[in-house]
Amino acid sequence: MDFGFILSSAAGELLSPTTAAYALAALGLAVHFGYSGLLNFGQAGFMAVGAYGFAISTLSFRTPFFVGLLIAVVCSVLFALVLGIPTLRLRADYLAIVTIAAAEIVRYVVTTNQLTPVTGSANGLAAFEGGFYSMNPFPEGSYFGMNNRDFFIRVVGWGLVAVGCVLVWLLMRSPWGRVLKGIREDENAVRSLGKNVYAHKMQSLVIGGIFGALAGMIFTLPRGAVQPANYGTELTFFLWTCLLLGGMATVLGPVIGAMIFWVVLSLTQGVLYGLIESGAVTWLTTVQAGQLRYILVGIALMLLMIFRPQGVFGNKKELAFA
After folding, report:
1. DSSP characters for 243-298?
2. What is the pTM of this model?
3. Which position has the higher pLDDT, 293 or 18?
4. If you ran DSSP here, which 8-state letter would residue 139 be given?
5. How far apart are CA 204 and CA 172, in angstroms?
6. What is the bridge-based pairing of β-strands 146-147 and 225-226?
7. pLDDT tens figures, 150-185
8. What is the DSSP annotation of 187-247?
9. pLDDT at 320
10. Can you spell out the DSSP letters for 149-165?
């Protein structure tokens, strides 16, 4: 078993574009649930809306990159409004059901055969990343063992994560953010003070949804393709895992949680595959090992919630609303 290769592969996941996308989407969940108390189980839907909004506008209308980016953001805002207007007055458990259903509706809509010329149906869309990489300022060459394209997407992805963290940090220390925290703790008390609880919830849903849409773009650009199978319900639960690992009502928690999540997944996969290839484990196939690693991560998450429910960077005081 090559432990050096296993460790280097796991270390590579720390700053991968996929980890950046998960961190950005989990940061949006922190705005929804950690700071506002909105139990959103449909963040994968926001990611899909952002990815498809960008891909369709680029392929069908030949829009420049920044126009496609703007369209993706507008689509996420519209999705938040359509989702939030009839649902934000619901209790948390009902809101969770509605949001997870809305995300699945988005996924099933883009797989509709009648929309194949636009969405690509189950095959998805590809070859829409050219406008993004045409802005690459890094010349051909090796950058920390990566080519210029890989390095560029990492710089952009983690730059967005950094900007998102600063923005959330500033918002949650503003009067608006303090109202959100009050809604999370006791929305009736906030309402009695004359604050518009519904409007603040809607604004929180929109902002967190924009983070999800941007994450959906970062998630698809390295692959050069957007496929509906990547935006299933399991994606939302992986994002919740990242959020819980780092801490629900923290700024850096979702980012660190995403890093831990992907490093642990890579380590467990590398060790299991190594044991199978060396013959030390004969009762397990590589396909089964791929599923077993999620079981091991699930057990680790259960232990975390038992012994440190506030997450790595969370504060026990923040658990009072949960």
Report:
1. HHHH-TT-SSHHHHHHHHHHHHHHHHHHHHHHHHHHTS--S--HHHHHHHHHHHHH
2. 0.94
3. 18
4. P
5. 11
6. unpaired
7. 999 999 999 999 999 999 999 999 999 999 999 999
8. HHHHHHTT--HHHHHHHHHHHHHHHHHHHHHHHHTTTTEE-GGGGSHHHHHHHHHHHHHH-
9. 46
10. HHHHHHHHHHHHHHHHH
Query: Looking up tokens 């998630």, which residue turns up?
Result: 219
Q: Which 3 state secondary structure label does DSSP give 2?
A: coil
Residue with tokens 């996924």: 107
pLDDT in tens, 56-66: 999 999 999 99
Q: Are 270 and 6 in contact (CB under 8 A)?
A: yes
Helix, strand or coil, per DSSP, at residue 145: coil
Asked if 103 contacts 213 with a C-beta cutoff of 8 angstroms, the reply is no
Higher pLDDT, 229 or 306: 229
Whole-angstrom Cα Rg for the chain: 20
pLDDT bucket at 50, cuts 50 / 70 / 90 = very high
- Single out the residue of 61, 12, 10, 17 nearest to residue 217, CA to CA: 17
3-class secondary-structure state, position 131: helix
Which residue is listed with tokens 């300022």? 137
Of the candidates 266, 270, 290, which has an alpha carbon nearest to the alpha carbon of residue 10?
A: 266
Burial code of 53-84, b = ≥16 C-beta within 10 A, e = fewer? bbbbbbbeeebebeebbebbbebbbebbeebb
Count other Cβ atoms within 10 Å, centred on residue 135.
11
**Coil, helix or strand at residue 127:** coil
